[in-house]
Amino acid sequence: MLTEAFRKGVKRIAVVVKSNDVTYMEKAREVLSEFIAQTIVIWREDEVSNA
Amino acid sequence: MTFDIVITTDRSMMTDHHHHEFLGFMTTGPAFGVPERVWSWIAAPKPKVDSEGRPKVAPYGLRKIEAALVDAGFNAAVVDPDHIGKHLDTMKVLMIGHHDFFAYGPPSSEWWTITGKEPFNRVSFRRFMESPVIRKAKEKGVKIIVGGPAAWQWLWALDEWRKWGVDTVVDGEAEKAVVALADRALKGLPLPDYIFVGPADTPQNIEEIPRIKHASVNGLVEIMRGCPRGCKFCSVTLRPWRMIPPERVIEEIKVNMSEGEKGIILHSEDVLLYYADGIRPRPEALLKLHTAIRQITDEPIGWSHASLAAIKSAQEQHKLITKLTDIMFSSEKQTYLGVEVGLETGSVKLARKIMPAKSAPYPVDKWPEVVEEAFSIMHEHKVIPAATLIAGLPGEEPDDVMATTELVEKLRPYRSLIVPMFFVPMGAFKNMEWFRRTQIRPEHVELLKATLRHSAYWARDIVDRFYLKGTRYVLVRAAIKWIVNYIERKAEEAARAVEERSKA
Questions:
Q1: What is the ipTM of this complex?
Q2: Nearest CA of chain B to the CA of A31: how many Å?
Q3: Contact B235/A50, CB-based, under 8 Å?
Q4: Per-residue pLDDT tens for B208-267?
Q5: How close A1 comes to chain B (CA, Å)?
Q6: Is the link from the previous residue into B363 a cis peptide, with omega within 30 of 0?
């Protein structure tokens, strides 16, 4: 899904994760370690529901 | 006086390095040869602070964040890490910046690899984050937001992220992002875990880049953001290329001078590409800026970085190194110019793979000649480079390393420091001893020995004749010479150990 968004040339991407802990970053870090041209904001689901 | 938002960092960053930026390199290594307290005193002396704990000088990046928040109407200030306790009962947000939180970046990772000991900056940052005052702040509900050039390292430090209660990591140019984050934090709204700031959310023009409100470490001021070289391995090229006009640079220098900071370091990915025509230097703005600085102060001017190709091109096309050093050395207080340059490799084969644009406007197969000619130009003009090279890159072959060693030996006549940086894959940090035993090969040892011979030879000359002159620095000078001798001895021992291992 992220790759699709990158291909479409979006400027900003919000990612909502279900994990209640930052360990999900183990999966995300390969993407985030690349040089990417979009703003990416990662929220946890409980944070979004409180926002 | 109280602050809603306190901005800080640990001791390895909150220091003026005795007004000598190159001493800052010592914070990236472990204390060796002397006790850690002595190492800390040499590399990271404490700055003077006011009654609120605000330091007389602070890293430029922290000053920019402070300026962005103050301009947006927030009650924010940079505070020295030893004085956070004064604001424990009142601060609501703690922002922490760093250029190498966990020593995963070069050259910290390299010293860690070679010595097997955790670098000083890593130890210092951990000590700060685990100090009672930070724990107390967390207990009181203070939001912790971290960022800076090393923000990416948190992706590989999830245990610490969780353990220390970091609320948000901000990666990228953060002047705009922190304003929105600060607003949410102070309103008690939830914060995101992570923000990667893409080009669309970086300041697009200079009016969106705030002017610093207080003095920066050693008078560092930025003159340019971004870089036009387009190297595939560098994220800076994705951002807009922006120039800070000479008048704006002078304004920030005056802020520093008004607070007693006499130093001036012009910061850019490549100072000689200030208002350049792509990768071809143009003299007008550079001459205007340096002349304007000389008109207001006779203090030495430093450059943060320059590329070797630009040095050669600027001199060949415009005699620009001669003209700029003539302006700088018109003051009796300035007898040399220090700058960091990237040598990276002596192998044309490897250069073609990893940095085809680095030698532009010259062809990449001329890279070793470009390096040597640029070193010659710098030597002639009393420009002293601290050059970095990269060893251990994926795809590197023994002949690539040997080509780099040959180039380092050719550079012996030119006054300079050459620092090898080991490419250390992230996984290696979990088993550093394995990495040290298996990945440092005999040809790397030859390269390390060549750079050490070069740098030890010139370090003594530079310390005596240029860098730390006068009785004021007699103790620092003596300590550095002692450390150089100690490193030489230890490096020989380490080289013998690797050689014996490879024979076994």
A1: 0.88
A2: 11
A3: no
A4: 999 999 999 999 999 999 888 776 556 677 778 899 999 999 999 999 999 999 989 999
A5: 17
A6: no
